[in-house]
Amino acid sequence: MNEETYDSMVKKASPDSPLLKDCIRAFAVGGLICMIGQMLTNFAVGYGFDERSAATFTSVVLIAAASLLTGLGLYSKIGKFAGAGSIVPITGFSNSVTSPAVEFKKEGYVLGLGAKIFIIAGPVILYGVLTSIIVGMVYYFAGR
Amino acid sequence: MDYIRAFAVGGLICVIGQILLDKTKLTSARILVLFVVAGCILGGIGVYDRLIDFAGAGAAVPLPGFGNLLARGVKEDIDTMGAMGILTGGLKAGAAGIAAAIVSAFFMAMVFRPKEK
C-alpha cells in the first residue's frame, strides 16, 4: 500500500464516470458525514460539553468509526461509491491511517505497521504543521 | 437548520475535492495535503472560523477544518506563551485527532486482517 495503490483504490471508485455523477455522490456522502458530525456536536453540547470539547468529541468519534469501518473492509466500499466524499472529511484521514496499519502489520510491528502507518497521513501532518509554523511566524511578527 | 447548513457546506467542500480528483492529475493523497494546508492558511487569516460559525461541523469535519485547528492552536499558544507557541500550537491542537487515529488504527491492525481488494 503506497500512494499509488491507495490512489488506484480510490480511483477504482469512479472509472471514467461522468463528473456530475461523481460530484453528486461526493456531495451526498460528504454532506451526510458532516451532518452526522453536527449531530455528534449537538449531542455533546447537550451533555454540557463546551464548544471546543464538543468539536474534539466529534472528531474522535468520527475517526474511531471510520477506523472500524476500514478494519471491517467497508470504508473502501463507501469510497468506491463516494470518491472525494469519503476522502475529504476527517474520516478519510482516519481511513488513511488504519488502512496501511492493517495492511502492513504482516511486515512486522516496527518496520511494517510502525513505519508505514503514516504513509498517507504523514505528509498531511508534515505540511499541516509546517504551514501552521509559518502562520505562527506571521502572526507573531506581523499579525498582533 | 444547522443540519442542512452542515450538509450543504460539507458536501460542497467534498465536491471541490471531487473536481480536483477528476479534472487534475492530483492524487487523493495530494488533495488531503492541499486541503489541510489551505485550511491552515484560511485559518491563519481568520476566514475559516467564520465558515465554521456558519456551517458548524460542515466546515469543521472536512480536512480544511483540521488545518484551521492547527492555525487556531498556534495563535492561541502565541497569545499565552509567546514565541515558543509558534512551535507548540499546531501539533498540540491536532493532538486529539492524530492520537485517536493512531490508537484506533493500531487496535484495528490487531483485530483485522487485510481484506482482498
The major sheet of chain A is characterized as: none
Residue ranges of chain A: pLDDT <50 for 5 or more in a row? none
Distance between the termini of chain B: 39 Å
Total individual domains of chain B: 1
Helix content of chain B: over 70%
Output the radius of gyration of chain A: 17 Å
Distance between the termini of chain A: 44 Å
Q: How many strands, what sense, and barrel or not for the largest sheet of chain B? A: none
**Shape label of chain A:** globular
Cα-based radius of gyration of chain B, to the nearest Å: 16 Å
Provide mean pLDDT of chain A, rounded. Answer: 92
Number of helices of chain A: 8
What labels would you give this structure?
heterodimer; A: 144 residues; mainly alpha; 81% helix; 0% strand; globular; B: 117 residues; 83% helix
Short description:
The complex is a heterodimer of chains A (144) and B (117). Chain A is 81% helix and 0% strand. Chain A has helices spanning 3-11, 19-46, 51-71, 75-82, 84-87, 90-104, 109-116, 121-143.
